[in-house]
Design goal:
Helix content is 50%, strand content 5%. The protein has helices at 87-104, 109-132, 154-157, 177-181, 188-216, 225-232, 243-258, 266-281, 285-288, 291-310, 313-324, 330-350, 374-404, 411-426, 430-433, 436-444, 477-500, 510-534, 539-542, 554-570, 574-584, 590-607, 612-620, 637-640, 660-669, 681-694, 740-750, 769-779; strands at residues 2-4, 53-54, 59-60, 144-146, 174-176, 652-654, 658-659, 703-705, 721-722, 733-735, 754-759, 762-768. It contains 28 helices and twelve strands. The strands form five sheets. Strands 7-8-9 form a three-stranded mixed β-sheet. A three-stranded mixed β-sheet has the order 10-11-12. It has a two-stranded antiparallel sheet with strand order 1-6. It folds into three domains: 3-74 and 649-786, CBS-domain (Roll), CATH 3.10.580.20; 185-350, Clc chloride channel, CATH 1.10.3080; 371-618, Clc chloride channel (Orthogonal Bundle), CATH 1.10.3080.10. With 790 residues, it is mostly helical. It comes from Taeniopygia guttata (Zebra finch). Pfam families: CBS, Voltage_CLC. Belongs to the chloride channel (TC 2.A.49) family. ClC-5/CLCN5 subfamily. It is a multi-pass membrane protein. It is found in: Cell membrane; Endosome membrane; Golgi apparatus membrane; Membrane.
């Protein structure tokens, strides 16, 4: 048997010569794989050390105990930064650990208790994640200050006020800056002062946020969902889910939302919840030492994050399943449900929305929708798909420009400029001045008799009022003014969000996308309402919308438009509909939401297949194998494997004829990341170093043997170092004629890092995950050298 050297660091542009990682391997053409080893004992099943692989027929665990040591070796089997995990190995190790605990549970009461606690630890971890997930309301210091506490926003400040309903926004506890400084809030000077303070506070909040991110936790910027998806697929990004990222992102998220930028907090809250899950994993050995098990926890944490962000526990579970998770077994589904349940219970206990409800935008529409309204709902779906495709292309083009030009060198300046433009444009328009969540809530609202919003300034005829339902009425001057302001707000939101998402501050995309759709939906809803009012005798209205009836609900159109635009950007379907009806309590309106979400996805997919998160994954070059896409090209394994023609000479480690010095020379003189049969370069180095320290007689001239029984040596020879335990004795293999679509499917579904290519049992080469990703990129006419590895 021969162990083969992996690929070298750095790769030539235009070729498939890869950068270093522990799946970047170099092959030996013509080397034969002989795993028979008739004299070997069967491998032992242990918890740590060596690992198992899949070879078409099943899982075979290798010995996990170092040959020169009775205890597992610290560091062996771990992964370096910007490398991918071996899912097969991690799952095999967990099964070995579980079998050992189960077998020992019959020996003593203590072992039985340990078995029970091990089984319960996953549920306890979910409980802790759900309890830690929380949310706070950002202050409204841009517009004024609450005398009861500066940390209260306007809505919270007036909760306990004794003012009447009509003056609910003028409570004495809340003071605008002009009232605080000048003593009054009327006049041109007061307006200019409020304008100036709005811009200054916005700049201060955003400056503090970007400085904290830049100085303490660079990973705290952005949404975090593209990176979470990549991590859940098996990629290692050290520090991305660490304690500093958690602390800084939690603080800067409040600052970024308070600055008035066109961003949301929902995506970053998923990142925050995953940080909590990752940190809590260190309390439990089962999750601390197994990367695959840890990713199951992170999938559940993502569900808890959405549950907290929206008050939508079921939608959170479906979001994790549909959009984020790479591996989602049934057990993870149950635990995600439990974590989302605990998070929702915690949110309900805190009552952050002040309405004693779990949902963010509770609506109460009195009239059912009519079948003919599906036409405008589908139009909103088309708008959402067009907006989603436009936003993705524009935002990716801007982010690529940021990465490839000098613009990326000045993140603080970029944030300040965008904040200043946003604040200057937002203040004159009351619909852009208010927070985006308040805007969406007002757009979703169904006008009642007591509503004082401009959107509800209709010409009232109370003689025709029946019960709580108001009939369709003629729009008054306030409604027309609101329409113009909303149209301007729509234009601003469409363009400013393109430049905001991706800056070096925490920025989510759910709420801005929903705001764009809600504005468009409300505009269309009012237009249809007025059309039905003035032309109720038209054939399309005469059958169901008589004069004086309450037919059209503009708030419903806003809700459907919000779902359509969010679906067009993210390409979510099932989870989106469930989140929307949980978010609003509008269970009766699932069909309109489904129609709009499906239409927006079809339209957006017709223009571009990628959602915003997948597009950012590709932009950043993360090694993510998308399970939703099909590989349809007619290439074979021999077209992708390495080595290729004119490749440099290959480095070989033989099974029983090289000394410690020979192997150390190879390791020090090359930059290979590992070996196809030897697990990795790191394992080899650690094993040799520990053998020198802990095993007597290991010197530079000691022979390294990768089998249990080495050939006889002269009596005067130094001790032999056995390293069989760091080998993968059952590597996954394919033939050189295997279609690449099958190879890609194998890598996706088994989570492999590499597989060997053979011809009639003779080793020809190797295919690594990076080779697959680069080949897919090349087939899609993309830059194959953009794939990120260490």
């Amino acid at each position: 048997m021969e162990a083969l050297a992996m690929d070298q660091k750095g790769y030539r542009r235009g070729s498939f010569q890869s950068a270093t990682s522990d799946e970047d391997m170099l092959e030996i053409a013509g080397a034969s794989m002989d795993f028979s080893m008739a004299d070997d004992d069967p491998p032992l099943d242990r918890e740590m050390g060596g690992f198992s692989s899949y070879n078409g027929g099943g899982m075979n665990g290798t010995s996990t105990m170092m040959d020169f040591l009775e205890e597992p070796l610290p560091g062996v089997g771990t992964y370096e930064d910007f490398n991918t995990i071996d899912w097969v190995r991690e799952k095999s190790r967990d099964r070995d650990r579980h079998r050992e605990i189960t077998s020992r549970s019959k020996e003593s009461t203590w072992a039985l208790l340990h078995s029970v606690s091990d089984a319960f630890s996953g549920w306890l971890l979910m409980l802790l994640i759900g309890l830690l997930a929380g949310e706070g309301k950002p202050p409204d210091l841009k517009e004024g200050v609450c005398l009861a506490g500066f940390w209260f926003n306007h809505e919270h400040c007036c909760w306990k006020s004794n003012t009447t309903f009509t003056d609910r926004d003028k409570c004495p506890e809340w003071k605008s800056w002009s009232q605080l400084i000048l003593g009054h809030g009327e006049g041109a000077f007061a307006y200019i002062l409020n304008y100036l303070m709005y811009v200054i506070w916005a700049l201060m909040f955003s400056l503090l946020a970007v400085l904290l991110v830049k100085g303490f936790a660079p990973y705290a910027c952005g949404s975090g969902i593209p990176e979470i998806k990549t991590i859940l697929s098996g990629f290692i990004i050290r520090g991305y889910l660490g304690k500093w990222t958690l602390v800084i992102k939690t603080i800067t998220l409040v600052l970024a939302v308070s600055s008035g930028l066109s961003l949301g907090k929902e995506g970053p809250l998923v990142h925050v919840a995953c940080c909590c899950g990752n940190i809590l994993c260190h309390l439990f050995t089962k999750y601390r030492k197994n990367e695959a098990k840890r990713r199951e926890v992170l999938s559940a944490a993502a569900a808890a994050g959405v549950s907290v962000a929206f008050g939508a526990p079921i939608g959170g579970v479906l979001f994790s399943l549909e959009e984020v998770s790479y591996y989602f077994p049934l057990k993870t589904l149950w635990r995600s449900f439990f974590a989302a349940l605990v998070a929702a219970f915690t949110l309900r206990s805190i009552n952050p929305f002040g309405n004693s409800r779990l949902v963010l935008f509770y609506v109460e529409f009195h009239m059912p929708w009519h079948l003919l309204e599906l036409v405008p709902f589908i139009l909103l779906g088309i708008f959402g798909g067009l907006w989603g495709a436009f936003f993705i292309r524009s935002n990716i083009a801007w982010c690529r420009r940021r990465k490839t030009t000098r613009l990326g060198k000045y993140p603080v300046l970029e944030v300040l400029v965008v904040t200043a433009i946003t604040a200057i444009l937002a203040f004159p328009n009351e619909y852009t001045r208010m927070s985006t969540s308040e805007l969406i809530s007002e757009l979703f609202n169904d006008c009642g008799i007591l509503d004082s919003s401009k959107l509800c300034e209709y010409v009232n005829d109370f003689n025709s009022t029946k019960g709580d339902d108001l009939p369709d009425r003629a729009a008054g001057p306030g409604v027309y003014t609101a329409m113009w302001q909303l149209a301007l707000a729509l234009i601003m939101k469409v363009f400013i969000t393109i430049f905001t998402f991706g800056m070096k501050v925490p920025s989510g995309l759910f709420i801005p996308s929903m705001a764009v759709g809600a504005i468009a939906g409300r505009l269309l809803g009012v237009a249809v309402e007025q059309l039905a009012f003035y032309h109720h005798d038209w054939p399309i209205f005469s059958g169901w919308c008589s004069q004086g009836a309450d037919c059209i609900t503009p708030g419903l159109y806003a809700m459907v438009g919000a779902a359509a635009c969010l679906g067009g950007v993210t390409r979510m379907t099932v989870s989106l509909v469930v989140i929307m009806f949980e978010l609003t309590g509008g269970l009766e309106y699932i069909v309109p939401l489904m129609a709009a979400a499906m239409t927006s996805k079809w339209v957006a997919d017709a223009i571009g297949r990628e959602g915003i998160y997948d597009a950012h994954i590709r932009l950043n070059g993360y090694p993510f194998l998308e399970a939703k896409e099909e590989f349809s090209h007619k290439t074979r394994a021999m077209d992708v494997m390495r080595p290729r023609k004119n490749d440099p000479p290959l480095t070989v480690i033989t099974q029983d004829s090289m000394s410690v010095e020979d192997v150390e020379t190879i390791v020090s003189s090359t930059t290979y990341s590992g070996y196809p049969v030897v697990v990795s370069r790191t394992d080899l180095i650690i094993s040799i170093e520990n053998a020198r320290k802990k095993q007597d007689g290991i010197v530079s001239t000691s022979v390294i043997c990768f089998t249990d029984y080495c050939p006889p040596l002269p009596p005067s020879s130094p001790s032999v170092l056995k390293l069989r335990s760091i080998l993968d004795l059952s590597p996954f293999t394919v033939t050189d004629e295997t279609p690449m679509e099958i190879v890609v499917d194998i890598f996706r579904k088994l989570g492999l890092r590499q597989c060997l290519v053979t011809h009639n049992g003779k080793l020809l080469g190797i295919i690594t995950k990076k080779d697959v990703l680069k080949h897919i990129a090349q087939m899609a006419n993309q830059d194959p050298d953009s794939i990120l590895f260490n």
